[in-house]
Structures are given as structure tokens and as C-alpha cells.
């Protein structure tokens, strides 16, 4: 899908125009088709566009819950999930994420209704459905005089205040730890990222702030060199 996707960037004055694909090249290699006809152990080679590669190397990215995003059918909900994952890095039960309705409409590209009040009703329904990320939310409406009749009040904008669920807070904390680990990551002799766990890494989330530091890693292969678990872990 991404190999066939085209991104078109154009400056406001029209002087700069760029069209590119996120993935410039990819391949599929199955060394032993007889032993593995389904290709379950095949190697997939992916070469990103240079702009994406530079962003990855500069660590200008964060983890998000890909499954929840891709399974979401509503476009605005998908947009909100990505936005909260990328921007609400300071999430905690006592802290909120605030955004104006006008900003949300402009950044997400939605403008389903002529009246701002109808757009707010739509956003309200979407927010109410995102119970896995949003524990509760509040809306502070901003009114103005009707621009044509100069009488009465019409909705001009609204401030949306979101409070996260405990599961979203935990996910963001794990992502923050993972992001901070990137600078300290060690490489093995083959150039792969290697993080060797220590005894303290296995403290569970329930035992307090010393959350499991291996929660943000995945097992990639066994290794006799690692002392505790016998596995080499790399960031997800």
C-alpha cells in the first residue's frame, strides 16, 4: 500500500512542488522455498524515502498504537488517535490536552457541515466513542453575534478539553522511556541494536514507578552472551 502511495507537497506560493512515495524500494527474499513455501521466515527488505530516513535518524518520530488506528473506520477518530499519540506526550490522570474546534477542523481536513454547531456535535460523538484513550472530556463553547442579522448568538468556536485513560497514560510513559533509550542504545558486532536486560528491568508496573523497562522491547533471538534472560532485545 505505502509503495503505491504518492505524497504531493506544494508551497503556498507555488514555487516548490514535490511528489514522492514513502517507500522507494522493497523486496521479498525467501532463501528456502521448499522448507518454507509460505514464506513465514522470509526476509523483507524496505528502503524508505530519503526524507523519511532523515527523520528516523534524527529521532523525529514516536510510537503509536498502530492496531487501534488501522482498525478505526472513522477518519476523524484515526486522526485524533495519531495526534494524541504524537503530541500528548505528557499524559497523566491530572493533566489535560486542550485543542480548539477550529484548529481540529483545520488540521484534520474535516468540514462536514456549514454550521460550527453541527461540526461540534459530530466531534462530540467521535470523542464519546474513544473510551480506550479518553476517560472524559469537556467542551467550552465560544459564541459571537450572528454576522448577517447582527442579532442573537452563534457558535464561533469551542475549546475541547481531554483527559486520558490510565491505559493511554501507561502507553505514553512506555513510549517516552523507549524514546529516551534511543540515544543510549548499544550496537552488537553486526550493527544491530542490542539492549541487555538487568535484574531491575523486570519490576512490574503494579509495583510502582519502576515500570518494566523491557515492556518497550521485543525479543529477536537467543544469545549466550546475555546474562539474565538469554535473549537479545531491541526497541519495538
Estimated share of beta-strand residues:
25-35%
- The low-confidence runs, each spanning 5 or more residues with pLDDT under 50, are 196-236
- In terms of quaternary structure, the protein is single chain
Q: Structural class of the secondary elements?
A: alpha+beta
Shape descriptor reads extended
| Main pleated-sheet profile | 3 strands, antiparallel
Distance between the termini: 22 Å
* Count of helix runs: 6
Please tell me the total number of domains. Answer: 3
Percentage of residues assigned to helices = 25-40%
Average pLDDT, to the nearest integer? Answer: 77
Strand tally, please?
A: 11
Helix-strand topology string: EEEEHHHEHHEEHEEEE
Could you say what the CATH topology of the largest domain is called?
Arc Repressor Mutant, subunit A
Q: What Rg is obtained from the alpha carbons, in whole angstroms?
A: 23 Å
CATH architecture of the largest domain: Orthogonal Bundle
- Order of strands side by side in the largest beta sheet? 5-7-6
CATH class of the largest domain: Mainly Alpha
